[in-house]
Design a protein that fits this description.
10 helices; binds magnesium ion; OB fold (Dihydrolipoamide Acetyltransferase, E2P); five-stranded mixed barrel; binds guanosine-5'-triphosphate; alpha/beta; disordered N terminus; Rossmann fold; globular; single chain; 3 domains; binds zinc ion; Ribonucleotide Reductase Protein R1, domain 1
């Protein structure tokens, strides 16, 4: 099968996201009996979709059940890719809630040539973004990695990198650091920047040096991306779009195919869209995902973003130590011994303070 789609994977009806519009959700809130009925019907659908010879669904006007991959949302509908990479515009059964690019689904073709998505597989990860009303919306499902793109210009900042890494750890996916535009650096400047980023290598992150202009390092990047579903993040101007263009020579052709599938001849690339990389792996191009907002990090997630602090946490003399001026602070002692980078402790303190403030103000 083309997209790794474990047949044993559970299909389910996703719970509404925290903070989703109450007005909309209220009309969709299901009684226990309704939920049980949906679960039962989804189990049956899953079972049927896993049969070698699919049989017709409940609705005889619908075709056989098939597995599919959500390529992009399109209004209230979705563009779904079938096993042969054909694209279909599909409506979504209401009880499934909001689906995202990267979701794996069961769908059936309808007589009008469109389709209906009837079930969705459990997600292994989900990236969300607050919408203009501050409510979380799913942006990309089943991600394996977020690529943090850095560049000498606009200048990189460790505290920003640490914020990204913490948000990525909170989603529970891998992070890759990519320093783009290395063509702009002479050898001493490149050495100085890589030295600054060495801290991240030491704590276990991979760092690739690339240039979308000269193609330097792109083979290594392709290799890292193959076999994973990734999204690019990073400050404006670091070269995310340039890298995506360099990695996806067929992007424009794909956009045309998606446009044709919408039935309206145009697809704005402002929506998150999933592309297959020629050498394997998928890339979700999500123009909105530039920076993660702190709102997506919960207090318990912070430690995951700072794995190298783990051995020292809870070992300070005071349990409420702020790791600033207190005596017997295990973290500051580790910094003095050269076991923790001073900048990382600084970022940790900044994020901790920002999170505490957010929690106090009820965010
Ligand atoms: N010298 C050099 N310039 C680059 C490279 N990659 C991108 N640029 C330039 O950097 C600028 C910004 O690139 P984009 O790809 O638009 O950056 P982006 O990260 O997509 O920016 P936003 O869409 O605003 O988030 C453009 O002028 C690119 O030509 C590179 O490898 N080397
Ligand atoms: Mg861009
Ligand atoms: Zn301390």
């Amino acid at each position: 099968m083309r997209h790794a789609f474990a047949v044993s994977r559970q299909f389910y009806s996703p719970r509404p996201l925290a903070g989703e519009s109450l007005g909309v959700q209220a009309s969709r809130r299901l009684t226990q009996r309704q939920q049980a009925r949906i679960q039962h019907s989804q189990d049956r659908r899953r079972h049927r979709a896993n049969q070698p010879e699919p049989v017709c669904g409940d609705d005889s006007s619908l075709g056989p059940e098939q597995t599919g991959l959500v390529i992009t949302p399109y209004g209230r509908a979705l563009i779904v890719e079938d096993q042969d990479r054909g694209l279909h515009r599909c409506a979504v059964r209401q009880n499934l809630g909001r689906l995202a690019c990267g979701d794996r689904v069961i769908w059936q073709a309808s007589s009008s040539g469109e389709g209906v998505v009837t079930a969705v597989a459990e997600r292994r990860s989900l990236l969300t973004r607050p919408d203009y009303r501050g409510q979380l919306r799913p942006v990309a499902a089943n991600l394996d990695a977020v690529v943090v793109v850095l560049a000498p210009f606009p200048e990189l900042s460790e505290s920003l990198i640490d914020g990204y890494l913490t948000a990525i750890a909170a989603i529970g996916v891998q992070a890759l650091l990519v320093l783009n535009k290395v063509d702009l650096l002479d050898p001493p400047a490149l050495a100085a920047l890589t030295h600054r980023l060495e801290t991240y290598r030491r704590i276990g992150y991979s760092l690739l040096l690339v240039s979308s202009h000269t193609a330097h390092g792109l083979a290594e990047l392709r290799n890292w991306l193959s076999g994973r579903t990734s999204v690019f993040a990073g400050q404006s101007g670091v070269g995310k779009s340039s890298l995506i263009k360099a990695l996806l020579p067929d992007r424009d052709i794909r956009i045309q195919a998606v446009s044709a599938a919408t039935g309206h001849g145009s697809h704005t690339t402002s929506a998150s869209t999933l592309y297959h990389l020629p050498d394997g792996g998928d890339l979700i191009d999500s123009p909105g995902v530039r920076s993660f907002e702190l709102g997506e990090i919960r207090p318990g997630d912070l430690e995951r973003g700072f794995p190298e602090l783990a051995p020292y946490l809870g070992r300070c003399r005071f349990s409420d130590c702020h790791h600033e001026v207190e005596p017997d602070c295990a973290l500051r002692e580790a910094v003095q011994r050269g076991e923790i980078a001073p900048r990382r402790l600084e970022s940790y303190r900044q994020l901790r303070t920002a999170l505490d403030t957010a929690v106090k103000s009820g965010r």
